[in-house]
Structure formats: structure tokens, C-alpha cells
């Protein structure tokens, strides 16, 4: 388990549905979120009314860019998961703006998609997960996409 890197104090009592361990970078332990992201994530969880299990939250640039075969995630070069070297720093991105949530089946995935979309989240859907991000926090247009 990595040591957690927390550049700014996070009062986890405000986000009772999530833990640092499930949102930290799996490689470096980095925990750095754009202002308002965790509050928005907790609001989504409260509105959804069901547990949400993150499979990916914060990522370091190194972990995001490293291929899967070499122990990374092989993520998109403009990933909103990246917290320590955000590609949208010019737009004011100060940390992670994305989380991937495990989806047990299609109906559950559809319910979470609808709830997140109504609440302003951008949504990407893949086999077994939904990518949720708040690109709108930095002036990017809300969107949906598939993997």
C-alpha cells in the first residue's frame, strides 16, 4: 500500500461514502482534488442512494501514462484523473476531476448514468464501469462518450 500524498488537508468526515484508500492513486498514493470535486461526488452518491465503488480516482501523471503491461493504466494523455500535472492547468485545473465507478449490471449503470447526467456530470461508459468527471468546473462542455 502506498503512503498517501495529501497536499491539502481533506476533512473526510464531509465525504462519508468514500475513503482515501479508494480514491488515491494506486501507484503513488496521491490525493489531490480540484476544489468542489469531492463535495460534488458526495452529493451524487447521496442523490443516487446506492453504494458507489470507485475503481480509479486520482492518478499521478507517471501512473496514468505508463502502459498497463508495465504496471500503469495506459490512460488518455488528457485524462482528468491526473492530479499532479493536469493537462488543463491553463484552464485552472488544480487536481483530479474524475472518478471511475464499478457498475454491477446494465440497469445499475443506466440508473447511475441518468442521475449523474442530471447533476451536471460528464459520463463515459465502459464494460463494467462508468467514468464520471466534472470538466464543467474548468469551463469544458459536458459530454458523454463510450470506451
Put the structure in a nutshell.
By secondary structure, the chain is an alpha+beta fold. The chain contains four helices and five strands, in the order H-H-E-H-E-H-E-E-E. The protein has a single domain (12-146), classed as Muramoyl-pentapeptide Carboxypeptidase, domain 2 (2-Layer Sandwich), CATH 3.30.1380.
Describe the structure.
This protein is α+β, with helices and mostly antiparallel strands and 147 residues long. It has a single domain, classed as Muramoyl-pentapeptide Carboxypeptidase, domain 2. Helices cover 23% and strands 14% of the residues. The protein contains four helices and five strands, in the order ααβαβαβββ. The chain has helices spanning 20-23, 37-48, 61-65, 106-118; strands at residues 54-56, 98-102, 122-126, 129-133, 144-146. Strands 1-2-4-3-5 form a five-stranded mixed β-sheet, with helices on one face. The chain starts with 19 loop residues before the first helix and ends with a strand. The relative contact order is 0.17.
